[in-house]
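Lecture notes, continued. The same structure-token format from the folding unit now serves as the input rather than the output. Read the line below as a description of shape only.
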């Protein structure tokens, strides 16, 4: 993944992740049960990131390659189907589902597991937020290697390269539909979609009549400043009622959803609020200090509209995509809720 929106908990990983983001493969996601099958454990074919993935029977040894994917599998009632949970140090599981994962082996720490560690648990289904987790050059198991070992690989729709620049929060619903079909838990998946849609509808109604604030989304590592102008992150701000300072029509974001900017250019934009992703409390404190000392006269700083969000919640294919839409909207327009 990439540091701007999905930074690992180790700053040293940022450079590798920026390169890894460029390895994301194509997108697209649709479920096609095999002829005569119902999708409740029988063969299911999924079009995912430009690939056709066929699952013969409901998986019994799944691995969530990020806590966001592990959480989704747990909420679908699949705790007994989990053979591993990866990158567990990226994000704590919510309190209500964490006990369900206590006996699930942890693979790796803040980074994806090594090829050997992942293959050791003999997975038959690997569910990842992006294709970075399968970068062989980083020592991870490649998609081809996993398929040769008998594992189906599914990547969150919003984490596919062809979708990365145009991704939307609702891409999560495609993933829930697909995974629900693959595991034969369609009702549970539909319930999560319904709950998420209700949250988005509630936010949309609350911000429908607000005077939109101009909001910039940034990522700070040390003194390097990046702006986020496309993809799921852009859609999150839009749904929260923000007038995005940076957008996909800007030349800087023609080929990638994040771009390095100068402090002078951000100051000149005079945003009313700043949203920034962080990977831990220390990173949040450092980012706040940088923003407040670098931009003391900026409206966002003067009016104390510095909104931190967890980098894990902007990973593609996570329920966090839904929750931070509401969180950001409430903090931008508290009187609307």
């Amino acid at each position: 993944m990439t540091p701007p929106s999905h930074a690992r908990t180790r700053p040293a990983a940022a450079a590798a992740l920026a390169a890894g983001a460029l390895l994301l493969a194509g997108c697209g996601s649709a479920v096609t049960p095999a002829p005569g099958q119902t999708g409740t454990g029988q063969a299911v074919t999924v079009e995912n990131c430009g690939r056709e993935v066929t699952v013969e029977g409901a998986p019994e040894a799944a691995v969530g390659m990020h806590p966001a994917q592990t959480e989704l599998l747990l909420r679908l009632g699949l705790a007994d189907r989990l053979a591993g949970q990866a990158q567990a140090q990226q994000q704590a599981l919510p309190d209500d589902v964490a006990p369900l994962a206590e006996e699930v082996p942890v693979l790796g720490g803040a980074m994806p597991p090594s090829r050997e560690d992942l293959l050791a648990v003999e997975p038959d289904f690997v569910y990842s937020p992006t294709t970075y987790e399968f970068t062989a050059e980083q020592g991870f198991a490649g998609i081809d290697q996993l398929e040769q070992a008998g594992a189906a690989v599914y990547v969150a729709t919003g984490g596919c390269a062809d979708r990365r620049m145009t991704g939307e929060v609702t891409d999560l619903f495609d993933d829930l539909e697909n995974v629900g079909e693959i595991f034969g838990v369609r009702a549970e998946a539909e319930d999560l979609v319904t709950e998420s849609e209700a949250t988005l509808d509630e936010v949309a109604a609350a911000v429908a009549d607000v005077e939109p604030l101009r909001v910039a989304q940034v990522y700070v590592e040390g003194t390097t400043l990046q702006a986020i102008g496309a993809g799921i992150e852009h859609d999150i701000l839009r749904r929260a009622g923000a007038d995005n300072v940076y957008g996909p029509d800007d030349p800087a974001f023609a080929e990638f959803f994040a771009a390095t900017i100068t402090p002078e250019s951000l100051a000149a934009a005079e945003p009313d609020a700043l949203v920034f992703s962080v990977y831990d409390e220390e990173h949040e404190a450092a980012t706040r200090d940088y923003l407040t000392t670098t931009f003391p006269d900026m409206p966002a700083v003067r009016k104390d509209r510095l909104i931190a969000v967890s980098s894990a919640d902007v990973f593609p294919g996570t329920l966090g995509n839904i929750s931070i839409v509401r969180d950001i909207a409430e903090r931008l327009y508290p009187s609307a809720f």
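Point for the exam: The chain is about 35% helix and 20% strand.
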